[in-house]
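Figure 2 data, in text form.
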Amino acid sequence: MHITTARKLITEQCQHLYDAAELQAIIWKILEHLSGKAKLDLLLDKDVQLQADKVQQIIAELKSNKPIQYILGYEWFGNLKIKVTPDVLIPRPETEELVGLFIDQIKKTGHKTCSLIDIGTGSGCIPILIKKELPETGVYAMDISEQALLIAAENAQVHQADIQFVKADIRDSNLNLQTQFDYIISNPPYILPEEKSDMHPRVYDQEPALALFVTEHDPLEFYKAILNFAKTHLKKDGAVYFEINQQYGPEIQSLCVQYQFQCNILNDMYGNPRFAISHPL
C-alpha cells in the first residue's frame, strides 16, 4: 500500500474518532512506525510502501478505542522510547514537563549526587529519564502493581538505567523504607470515580484504573499519603515534586501547609496549574 493511500484510508476510517489535529499526529506515528522512517524522510520520499494488512489491523484497533500507544507498544518520553502496555499509564507531555522542571533545578543547583524516589512509577518513564540525564543520582521507584514494575524494570534495562524498584502501597501505614531521600517525585492518581463521565472511554476503559482513580472518593488521598511519607523519609533540605489535577491547586497548597510544607504551584505549557513543588517548613 502506497503511503499516500494509507494516509487517506486512515483519515477516512478514523476521522470520527479524533479531532483533526490529533488524528494527524496519530497518522504520522503509524507511518513512522510501519516504515521505520522519520517524518522528514517520509515527506522527502514519495514512494514508500507499507504492508496493507498491518495498516488495516491498526485501523481496526483504533476503531475499538485502543490508544495508539498500546497498539504500537511504546511512547516517546523525552528522547526515550518507553514500552507501554495496558498495565501502565501512557506517559503524557505534562509529566515530561514535570521531569524537565526537576532536571533543570538539579542542574542549576549542582546537586547531582542526590537521591530520589518516584512514587507510582508505572512504566518507569520518570526515573529512567532522570537517571539518563543525571547519572550520578541515586534513583528508587515505587509502585503497587507488580505488572507495572515488570514493565518499568524492562524499560530500565533497555535504557541501561540503574534503578532500585520497590513494590509497595504508599498508603500503607506500616511502610518504612530504610532510606532517606533528597527528593520525592510523583504523578499520583487524582481522578474521582464520578469524574469518569467527563473522560473518553479510550482512557478509562483502556488505561489502568489503579493509575487513574482514587479509591476513597478523596482526590487528595495519595498526596496525603506521600506527604506523610515525606515527613519521615525526606531530608531536611529536600523537596517534593507533584503533578496535580488543575482543579485542586489551592487544596494542594492548604494540604501542604497542614503537613508543614511550603508549596509553590506552577503552570504547565497550556497555562494550567499542573505542578506543585513543596519544601519542608
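Caption note: The chain has a mean pLDDT of 93.
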